[in-house]
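Student: Please help interpret what follows.
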Amino acid sequence: MTVAPLPQAEHQAVENALLGGRVRLRQPARGYRAGMDAALLAAAVAAEPGQRVIEAGCGAGAVLMQIAARRPGVSLTGLERDPAMAALARENAALNGADAQIIEGDVAADFRALDLPPFDWAVSNPPFFDDPGALRAPAEGKRGAWMADDGLKAWTTFLLKSAREGGRIMVIHRADRLADLLALLGEKAGSFAIRPVHPYADEPAKRVLVQAIRTGKAPLRLLPPLVLHDRSDAKHTARAEAILRGEAALDD
């Protein structure tokens, strides 16, 4: 399959291998590049063949490409407001032979404006901050990935509207925003399943993976935690390494 060259020198990219080399991903040489959070989000999406998945804020397509490799037969759609990143996502879809449609748009707009039917899965790794005073100004090229200009509510609203009734919503975010996520998603979703992600077993969780079901009514479940590192010389725990290599998943 032919892959078009990068459009301009200012958008030069580097290519990374993910999932033990099963995924090739081109990302900006400068600015934000996807990493652990994207890998964990993709590993938590248990979409089945024939199901449709939309990612809000897909960037260069790191999550979508890893879902494509993990879940053959799934139809993928990415929404991205940055035209340069959307172009990279399309390039990565071609590079990996993924069934992925990339749409340019903003989560702050009404989902109905996309003229798409609701999805079986709506997933996202929203920007972690929505208060410009909460951190130093992000480096050039990273602001859009770090700062939610319209607040976390814009992201949860989009996810809730894009998921069909009974469909699943999956989000990875900072652990200290868990209460906000539950309150915002709880407006139209339930049956929460929460997985804490700890840097070390003896340290507090820094991330949470939150799954909700649109109109779900089941009791909240707190899933076993994922621990990323131990005190050995290994870079990751055996479990985390298996997930990063695509040899294990986080679906429960």
Remarks:
- The mean pLDDT is 89.
